[in-house]
Amino acid sequence: MICTTVREGDDCVFMKTKGCSYLGGACLPIIDECNGCSRTSDYETGAYCTAAPDPSLKWKNGNCNIATHIKAAEAAKKQKINPIKASKRR
C-alpha cells in the first residue's frame, strides 16, 4: 500500500488499512553511516532508507548488507604452494 505516515506517496509493505504496522507506527530516519547511500531518499519529514524501515538494525553487526556506498574489501587470494611440487616444476 501507499505510505501515509513519513514516506508519503511511496509503496510500503508495512502499510495496512489501519496505518503503519511497523514497530512504533512509522519508519525510522537514517543514521550517520547511511550518508552517501543511493537507497536514501529525502522527504518533508527527513531522510529515510527506501529498503529498510530501521537502518540502525542493518548496521548493528557491522556494515549494512544493502548499502551501495560501501565497497567490500576483497581479500587477496594467496594460494598456498607446496614446496615439494614447486621444486619439481623448475
Structural commentary:
The chain has 90 residues and is of the alpha+beta class. It has one domain. It is built from 2 helices and 4 strands. The strands form 2 sheets. A two-stranded antiparallel ribbon has the order 1-2. A hairpin with a 2-residue loop joins strand 3 (40-43) and strand 4 (46-49). It starts with 14 loop residues before the first strand and ends with a helix.
In short:
With 90 residues, this protein is an alpha+beta fold. It has helices at 55-58, 83-89, and strands at 15-16, 19-20, 40-43, 46-49. It has one domain (15-89).
Jot down its keywords.
single chain, 90 residues, alpha+beta, two-stranded antiparallel ribbon, 4 strands, 12% helix, 13% strand, rod-shaped
Q: Extract low-pLDDT stretches.
A: none
Instruction: Give the CA-CA distance, first to last residue.
Output: 68 Å
Gross morphology is rod-shaped
Global Rg: 22 Å
List the helices and strands and how they pair.
Layout: E1 15-16, E2 19-20, E3 40-43, E4 46-49, H1 55-58, H2 83-89
Antiparallel strand pairs: 1-2, 3-4
